[in-house]
Task: structure prediction
Amino acid sequence: MQKGYFITFEGGEGTGKSTQLALVKETLEQKGITVRVTREPGGTELAEEIRGVLLRPRAEIVNVTTELLLMFAARAQHLAQFILPAIERGEWVLCDRFTDATYAYQHGGRGVGEDKISLLEELVQASFKPDLTLLFDAPIEISLQRMRDRGALDRFEQEGVEFMQGVRSVYLARARLEPKRFRVINAAGTLHEVRGSVNHHLQALIDDWVSA
Ligand code: TMP
Result:
């Protein structure tokens, strides 16, 4: 049986990736493809509990290594219990953030060494990577404005402009390093424009699937 595809949606806060993910689900389902939608950290009961622990603002300073290990603990569970079985069944998995977010946030934002992240990446997922990663990129000012409109902020959203710039620049650097896997989408456009660009980038994968 043909394996499903694993597509990840990445970007800083307020770039509209989650909205676009829901639209992609619709587009794919209209083509008769079975789609599973999930997110990180999270995606299973246990991983969602870890998400709660990670996102909740707290008075205690969270050690960066603790944060990193919890991200990968959630990911190990998510991969084993949700992502890999779905792909094996021939379903497409659309995931709101994955390991690129760890490089962007824990390395770009927090300054954790990339070597530590790649060590855990190897342990948890070996060579497994997304088939396609859509990176929604927008200037920090746009992200800030959209976040202001949102209300209560989680522990990551409470970080400052410097953190957000670090996240954005690591995402863009990763996209340059792996141009085959990444598509950078200008998220500053209208919902309609961004949707058009996403559909354009998805087309090759859909054509592949249909012809297989
Ligand atoms: P969300 O707001 O897009 O649902 O993502 C939850 C937060 O978790 C977001 O601020 C980014 C952060 N995050 C990391 O710091 N590292 C990771 O590996 C992942 C998956 C998310």
